[in-house]
Amino acid sequence: MTNENAYNDGYSYETFIRRAFKNVTSEGKNGEHSIQMTTLIDIEEGKDLSKLAASNIKQLDKVKGYLAKAIGKFLKMNLDKKEKFEFLAMKTAVEKAKNSTDLIAVVERGLAITDRF
Fold first, then answer.
1. Which string of b and e fits 39-70 if b means at least 16 CB within 10 Å?
2. Please, which residues have CB within 8 angstroms of residue 65's CB and are 6 or more apart in sequence?
3. I want to staple 17 with a disulfide (CB 3.0 to 4.6 A). Which of 32, 59, 71, 96 is the partner?
4. What are the b/e assignments for 82-103, b being 16+ CB within 10 Å?
């Protein structure tokens, strides 16, 4: 993956998280900064970021937690049946994700269905 792709993926991740929390800056509490995803991508690519994240698994779990929290926030909103089904499927996909590629697929799916938010 190129740095440009990592940046774009990080931006997509940040956009999705911010939509869930209505763009409220929470000083990183909700994981809304793109650095969360770009750090995971960098670790997977083998870059030495030991000071930023202890391990791939730890960072993966961290990003999965932030995405699950955002999906949970969307599930509390006034959704139609199709949207609710999509979010529940995304929740399952996040739980099963094994890497950043899996998570980016969920994020892209989420961006498509949250355009109205």
1. bbbbbbeeeebeeebeeeeebbebbbebbeeb
2. 31
3. 32
4. ebeebbeebbebbeebeebeeb
Written as one letter, the residue type at 92 is T
Instruction: Determine the distance from the C-alpha atom of residue 21 to the mean position of all C-alpha atoms in its chain, rounded to a whole number.
Output: 13
Contacts of 94 (CB under 8 A, 6+ apart): 64, 67, 68, 71, 103, 106
**pLDDT band, residue 4 (cuts 50/70/90):** low
**Residue 16 corresponds to which amino acid?**
F
On the 0-12 / 13-18 / 19+ scale of CB atoms within 10 A, 76 is exposed
CA distance linking residue 33 with residue 54, whole number of Å: 18
